[in-house]
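The instructor's notes for this session suggest beginning with a concrete chain rather than abstract definitions. Hand out the sequence below and ask the class to guess, before any prediction is shown, which regions might be ordered.
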Amino acid sequence: MFSNKGVHKGCNRISTQQEVNKSTEEWLKRVIKGCDKDGDGRLSKQELKQAINILGSNFPAWRAWRALCYADSDGDGYVSEDEYDLLVSYLSKHIKQGSAKKAREDYSKLPTQH
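After discussion, reveal the predicted structure:
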């Protein structure tokens, strides 16, 4: 028999999941922007590899190449800021949740950059 003990009647699982997804997307964008070492507003394959490595993915060089193929809509060989949403979409689909969770915990322990 189904029991709703401990479940808030107004609980909306869809909006909760959307909030989690939005939080993850914002975190991914912070990681991505943090790997733009030269500050030009776009990620090279090497910078993208570093971001994917931070996220805990296996085979970061291969994953960076795949992410670049997916997100580089203008074909210039970089992922620019207007292509970040495509990159976040790719990363959220292809980075294992366990790896991303651990990476997020490790990343939160790093000192903030000023």
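Then share the key points. The longest strand covers residues 42-43. The radius of gyration is 17 Å.
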